[in-house]
Specification:
Helix 3 runs parallel beside helix 4 (71-79), helix 6 (116-131) crosses helix 8 (173-184) and helix 8 crosses helix 10 (211-224). By secondary structure, the chain is an alpha/beta fold. 41% of the residues lie in helices and 20% in strands.
């Protein structure tokens, strides 16, 4: 599942919370339910996967350090079948460990201890940007063509899909919005800070937050580039951030 239906937006979201700490589950269940969301909680990774298959959530909030299956394993298995937004909760002090979750496909992470209000804000940002279809280009002040063609890559903004020749490339909602922002400002370097604000909806509180952008860029390159180690589409703007190659051809589709 990659899109939230109109009825889901009106009635609240279906959210799966997985954490082995009972007090965190209780707090999040209570607060999110008060906001009109339908919340189901799991106490370990195996239970989270079992619930996921039947519940089909709109968003997953997932602790990393859980018994039976850790959060990394759960992210990997969910991403094999779904692009549903995932926010990781991690108490791990090593930045590299947090980055691992992003590399596996998580959309964002928060470090424990965390503020429930901040998590709620992150949930709103992730859902709004990953699933509503209101992409990042509008927030960037640009208006992208309905279809952009670069070589054998085509990006359809109406359908929010990317294709290599006739084969669809699976992108998460956040990955697509990042790509849309880059294309809408092709040939223009965009800073990591700007990307975080436009795509994720928050300003970084610590230097390591910008790694969220780096990992998502790496994931996009792995999916879009013929040679991710020598990218031709998504270029590095030294000392600043990234930019999409200047586009020579665009095709408008009614």
């Amino acid at each position: 599942m990659t899109q939230i239906s109109e009825s889901s937006r009106d009635e609240g979201l279906k959210i799966l919370v997985a954490d082995d700490e009972a007090n965190i589950r209780r707090i999040l269940e209570t607060r999110l339910a008060m906001q009109g969301h339908e919340v189901v909680a799991a106490k370990n990774g195996a239970e989270a996967l079992e619930i996921f298959r039947g519940f089909e959530p709109d968003l997953v909030v997932l602790d990393v350090m859980m018994p039976e299956l850790d959060g990394f394993a759960v992210v990997e298995r969910i991403r094999a079948q779904s692009e549903v937004p995932i926010i990781l909760l991690t108490a791990l002090g090593d930045v590299a460990d947090r980055i691992t979750g992003l590399q596996l496909g998580a959309d964002d992470y928060m470090v424990k201890p965390f503020s429930p209000k901040e998590l709620e804000a992150r949930i709103r940002c992730v859902i709004r940007r990953a699933n509503t279809g209101n992409g990042a280009a509008g927030g960037a002040g640009g208006k992208a063509a309905n279809v952009v063609v670069v070589g054998d890559l085509s990006v359809d903004f109406n359908r929010r899909q990317a294709f290599r020749s006739a084969e669809r490339i699976r992108l998460t909602g956040m990955e697509f919005n990042l790509l849309e922002l880059l294309i809408s400002r092709s040939g223009e370097p965009i800073s990591r800070l700007d990307m975080l604000e436009k795509v994720w909806g928050y300003k970084p509180e610590r230097a390591s937050d910008s790694r969220v952008v780096d990992v998502h860029i790496s994931r996009l390159r792995a999916k879009l580039e013929h040679d991710p180690e020598n990218p031709e589409l998504i270029l590095t703007a030294r000392g600043m951030g990234y930019m999409f190659q200047r586009i020579a051809q665009t095709v408008d589709v009614a």
